[in-house]
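Hello forum,

I keep getting stuck at the same step: I have a sequence, I want structure tokens, and every attempt I make locally crashes halfway through. Rather than fight my setup again tonight, could one of you with a working pipeline run this one for me? It's a single chain of 198 residues.
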Amino acid sequence: MGKRRLGLVAVGLAAVLFAGCGVAFKGAPTGEQTSKKKVTVSFTLCKEEGGVCDTWDDNDQDRLLVGFRVPKKTKPPQEFASTSGLPIELARSASYKSELNQKAPKGKKFKWFGYISGVLDLEAEDEASFAVKMKLPRNFKPKRFKVRPVAGWTGGNTTEIDCGDDVFGETGGGQNAFCIYDPSESEIDDNLKIKIKR
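Reply #2:
Ran it on my machine without issues. Output:
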């Protein structure tokens, strides 16, 4: 999970369940080519506190953020939902996508897509698993498809995401979200590499 920054409450951010903790990947994301033109990226997210997964409370009122850095012309879904654990649905967020593309490490051949959940009506489960299908770019040539999933959070009343001066949450700058809580800044270039066969 990397080193976590605990106790951050962004300027203007409503009282949130993740104050003093965060959301993190449980284990490393995995991926596989599921057809000639598609890959599936799988991962499990949990509430993190003190470096370990913890249980969400039933009064938690926040929104989950998930982003993907993928090769240009990749076609991720418009929305996706958890396959097990907490029932969570996420849809594309234009503002989160824009913030990531402007402020997060990207590279010339890649772009970011961002997703936001509704206000979470959480129960006792402590994790949620996802399997996100993506369409490969047309005539994709490299032998490995590189993707970097990220996870963050924002307050329940927030839909227009502002990452502030640092997507990793080091500074305030009017931000209303912790745009990338996991992975850490030192791990952001560690891509998931999916072997592609034609």
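The first strand starts at residue 22 and ends at 25. If your local run keeps crashing, start a new thread with the error log.
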